[in-house]
Amino acid sequence: MEPSEQQIEELLEKAWLTMEDSGKLGEEDFLRRCDMEGLAEPAAVLERLDLLSRRGGELEFTAEGKRRAALVIRHHRLAERLLRDVLHVRGGSFEPSACAFEHCLDAEVTQSICTLLGHPTSCPHGKAIPPGPCCAAAAREVQPVLMCLRDLPVGQRARLVYMSSSSHKRLDQLSSVGLLPGTIVQLHQRRPAFVIDVGQTSLALDEQIVSGVYVRPISEARESENDNRGHGFRRRRRGRGFLGRT
Amino acid sequence: MQNAAEQVPDSKTGTMRREKQNPDLPASSSRADRVGEQRDKIFLLLGNPNVGKSVLFRLLSGKYALVSNYPGTTVELSRSGLRLEGQRYGLIDMPGANSLLPNSEDEQVTAGLILSSPEAVVVQVADAKNISRALMLTVQLAELDVPMVLALNMWDEAKDLHIKIDHQRLAELAGIRVVRTVATERRGLTALRHALLDARKAQLALKYPHAIEQAVKEIEVILPQELTGPRGQALMILGGASDPLDVLSSQNRQAVLEIRQRLQERFSEPLSYIISQARFAYVGRLLEPLVSRTQPQAESQRSGGAVWRGVGLAIMAFLVGYKLADLVLGFTAVPGRVGQMYYYLLLAGPGLGCVFLYQRFVRDPFFDRARSFSSLLGLLTMRVRTAIPLVIVTLWLLYVLVGKFAAGTCVDFLESVVFGEYINPALMYVAGLGLAEQSLAYQLLFDAEAGLITVGLTYSVAIVLPIVGFFFLAFGLLEDSGYFPRLATMLDKIFKRMGLSGKAALPMVLGLGCATMATLTTRVLETKKQRTIAILLLALAVPCSAQLGVIAGVLGKVSGGAFAVYVVVIASQLLLVGYLAAKILPGESGQLILEIPPFRVPQLRNVLVKTGYRLIWFLKEAVPLFLVGTLILFVLIKLKVLGALEAGASPVISGMLGLPGDTAKGFLLGFLRRDYAAVSIFKSYGGQAMGQDQVLVALVVITLFVPCIANLFVMIKEKGLRVAGLMVAFIIPFAVLVGTALRGILSLYRIVTGGVN
Question: Which of B134, B167, B201 is the last residue of a domain?
């Protein structure tokens, strides 16, 4: 029986995990991991496809095998990040979804997800995500990761990427006060309530609301580019002061 | 609080008579003779919250509208007229709205009125520095085909921020008149008046995602032919609004809802959110070439400001620390034990400490952005560590002004000198010329216990008026500075325990002015549960200005400790009942989304005018009620019913609360005016009829006790007879129970400490 594309990807994934954990592709270890795939002689299958080779009895990736394995792992771990950070999937359905997800991502979608997440370098379990071409480009521009507004450092400016909320009404409320993807926000303080600047408006929000807002911090080097924008410029708040008025 | 302008709570404007006419107004005066046809033309003031609609309303119509520096001051429609080129038009001030898809009841009023008056002209008031948010509304108006004019208000603040807006280009692009105004300084008004007669429909057409456009077309076909702005209405329906559905037959409504349902299934995000995003992107593109912001180059400006800022801050911080130490040491025996000079030196320590604390805070580079002293204060009043000392000192200042100066000095002067030596004797003399002293009429006016003049008028004008006057003055200053939303932010965590968000702190604080008006203000809260809890707490535990002022006056005579006990008891009951209500009541608790306006130096003129209007309101509303109350009292005394009532109430009044029997009459009249009850205790304590503990118990009970009659009516209006009845049925026994418990604790304390009352 010829193995399906999906099965091959699963085998490559196992091989990669074996490499990652022990530093070498030990055959015994690899076969144990592949047990549940229900394929006879997994190593031989991959060898036949020129994805693995044998040198002196030791298994190792061919160049093509390594590239494809890295891609599968990248898909899986990006999917994990997406499910956990963006979609808030937790518990039982988390791993199965990520496993199903990894097989249906093409290059373009992967790059979009990676960009959306801010080119993350590790999965929720702390393991490395193999970088893709988009990450290399981003690294040159020093673009930091996507993060929750709750965790944004005070004073840091950031562009709102998306909001998640269980209630439609809340999204409407937030968008009506000017919080919409694309706006530039700046965190003022966390306690006793979060206070952010949106354009020229100051908003007080509680932690529950702030937790559903995700932003991408803007590095100071790129600031001048944004200063001429119609909205979301850096805010210098100014009342009609009796002392500072000129 | 009260709005002196006539308020018509009913948002259903079906009653408004309008003539079919061309919405484009004649701009030339050659048609000015057609007065009759134009009389019913209405201008609606619309805009985001806190952009100055009410200021413009006052300036355009000449009619007073309450103006403050926080969103949600106007919760009802104020109607008036305006004269343009010799003709009268209607002018309506509406509550602020961020979107025509309403999120709260006050926004509902606004959206409802716009939809139900398609021939009205909308005057959109925008905060120039937040122009993108304003244009979100303009886009919606354009889709509804509403003729409009755009006023870019607060132009000066935008200029101070170096924000440049090409308003002429904006006017060309949108096809409407765009006027720059600074309402508080009356600038741009003439241009605005001219523009009003040249209102046009805005030409801001944006394309939504294809699927939405498709659905809009389908709905437009179903909507009735004569409906104006079908595109806007269709989009509102897709966004989830229910108002535009009202005109449809049930069959059509079903069809429209199905279209919406089908469309929603194609998107993972709510339709309203997707529509908002499309509008936002459009507004962003539109404004990109029109708005620019130059970095302020004038560093010298900033350093000049920095010196002032530093000095001002240091002085303020020193006084805060000094006073805090004084307040704390006031409860100890220290002041008596050391010499005066040493005591001052002792206080200077914490003063300097505070200077250090505040300076350290300001060194945070983040504060750099606050270039003026007032914007610095705006930041300091939101940070826990710097704000709490400021709150305490502010409360102390309020207490000194209202409790000491107004309730002490002013009342003494007015009551014993002005009324006691001049007015009352003079009136008595005049009356004595025509009436015998024993006659019923003379007694009705001058009876020592219940004379209309000696009691009713004297109480209200000599005692309550100065107290509320100074309270309103201080309150107005705080209101206009923008302090209250900051306080609300500080209180959010505590209010969460009561099922409320910090936003509910606004009605609560306003309740200190007048619980009746504050009950209306609860409309800014988003959920039903929040509103119910807030209305209950307002009726139960928030004393109104007149009552609070008198209470501060009484307790000012007793001791600082008594005032502290009073505050602790009331606050703890507020928290307790709020906490329990949040547990018991079903529904959604609040979450905090609150706009914080810039901290501004209050305009003295606005504060004085506002105080003046509030005092006129007080004279109109409260003085007659005081007279009515006194009249009832007089009748009860003469019919000898009062004695029977007091005897009937004595198991509660004397038995449980341990108060003199005649306190019952105070409680009774407290229902007419809460401050009447407080004043009667004020007099009793002054007359030594009550001891300290009794005064404390009595004041706690009258604070918690029944809301006044006006408040009760508003409660019924807002929540219905049943809920209001349940609230009152809870409040009365609860107040008595708390009073009884307090009495028990106080007497136990006296026994333990061996003190005598």
Answer: B201
